[in-house]
Automatic annotation (TrEMBL):
<keyword id="KW-0223">Dioxygenase</keyword>
<dbReference type="GO" id="GO:0005737">
    <property type="term" value="C:cytoplasm"/>
</dbReference>
<feature type="domain" description="TauD/TfdA-like">
    <location>
        <begin position="12"/>
        <end position="276"/>
    </location>
</feature>
<keyword id="KW-0560">Oxidoreductase</keyword>
<dbReference type="InterPro" id="IPR042098">
    <property type="entry name" value="TauD-like_sf"/>
</dbReference>
<dbReference type="GO" id="GO:0046872">
    <property type="term" value="F:metal ion binding"/>
</dbReference>
<dbReference type="Pfam" id="PF02668">
    <property type="entry name" value="TauD"/>
</dbReference>
<keyword id="KW-0479">Metal-binding</keyword>
<dbReference type="GO" id="GO:0016706">
    <property type="term" value="F:2-oxoglutarate-dependent dioxygenase activity"/>
</dbReference>
<comment type="similarity">
    <text>Belongs to the TfdA dioxygenase family.</text>
</comment>
<keyword id="KW-0408">Iron</keyword>
<protein>
    <submittedName>
        <fullName>Taurine dioxygenase</fullName>
    </submittedName>
</protein>
<dbReference type="InterPro" id="IPR003819">
    <property type="entry name" value="TauD/TfdA-like"/>
</dbReference>
<dbReference type="InterPro" id="IPR051323">
    <property type="entry name" value="AtsK-like"/>
</dbReference>
Length: 287
């Protein structure tokens, strides 16, 4: 069953509350009203899929600029080439894997608002990506656990994934992020439960990729709380999964989702190009 938005987007929901496929929209030639509707649908459905697109690197960057302010490709990893410093290339031939649940770049004070991912080279089988709805997950926690989580703060640390890359492959000099050259990855604190700045809905904002621990509790308590939240966040009823075709575009709201890319295609090459939109500083229910 499909639905139409005010700008006549054709949305095919992928679940009762989360995810949708958008058919019949050419992102390269979309009108401004179409993209306003895309932004609204993105906040509502959290992850959108656009099949059959014909964007190259220039077109992907142009689309991103119409939707918001683009960041550098990544705080640490440089752009795909000199002409496209905004594009982060995930190439499986160069350790470009994302096979751990994560929310993009939460190890920076101002993580991205959202991401736009394009399939460039795909294996014959495998390489699907799944997204989890952090708001639905929060809302389905029991009330006492929600009350506890609302009060907590967590540390996010990019050194585990990118510290070596920054030091050895970039010589200690990363990208310009929020106006400053990244020369080290200092751990940052974010609320465990994030309030969405546009809707006011609350969502779980910790992830196994970058969250190291919870502030003010013992190591054992931190591990137990995080494990509980991770297990709940990634329950099947909170997840949508996408099987890629070359040219597909996925957009997601980084403030209300986490995602995971299957690494089930052996030595076959998989290349994805991602851009991110500049976000805001996360805040929680108690701030």
């Amino acid at each position: 069953m499909s639905t139409r938005t005010a700008a006549q987007l054709t949305l095919h929901p992928l679940g009762p509350h989360f995810g949708a496929r958008v058919d019949g929209l050419d992102l390269a030639s979309a009108h401004d009203d179409d993209l306003v509707a895309v932004r609204a649908a993105l906040i509502d459905r959290k992850v959108l899929f656009f099949p059959g697109q014909n964007l190259d690197d220039d077109g992907q960057v142009a689309l991103g600029r119409r939707l918001g302010e683009l960041t550098a490709s990544h705080p640490v990893v440089g752009g795909v080439d000199e002409a496209h410093p905004e594009i982060y290339e995930l190439d499986s031939a160069d350790n470009g894997f994302a096979d751990i649940w994560h929310t993009d770049v939460t190890f920076m004070p101002r993580p991205p608002l959202g991401s736009i991912l394009r399939a460039v080279i795909l294996p014959a089988t495998g390489g699907d990506t799944s997204w989890a709805d952090s708001q639905l997950a929060y809302e389905s926690l029991s009330a006492p656990v929600r009350e506890l989580a609302d009060q907590l703060t967590a540390v996010h640390d990019g050194n585990r994934e990118f510290g070596y890359y920054l030091a050895q492959r970039r010589g200690g000099k990363g990208s310009v992020w929020d106006g400053e050259v990244v020369t080290r990855l200092d751990p940052v604190e974010h609320p465990v439960i994030r309030v969405h700045p546009e809707t006011g809905r609350r969502g779980i904002f910790v992830n196994p990729g970058f969250t190291s621990h919870i502030v003010g509790v013992s190591e054992a308590e931190s591990r137990a709380i995080l494990d509980l939240l991770y297990a709940h966040l990634t329950k099947p009823e909170h997840i949508v999964r996408h099987r890629w075709s070359v040219g597909d575009i996925a957009m997601w709201d980084n403030r209300s989702t986490a995602h995971y890319a299957n690494r089930d295609y052996g030595t076959t090459r998989r290349v994805m190009h991602r851009i991110t939109l500049r976000g805001d500083v996360p805040y929680g229910p108690i701030h």
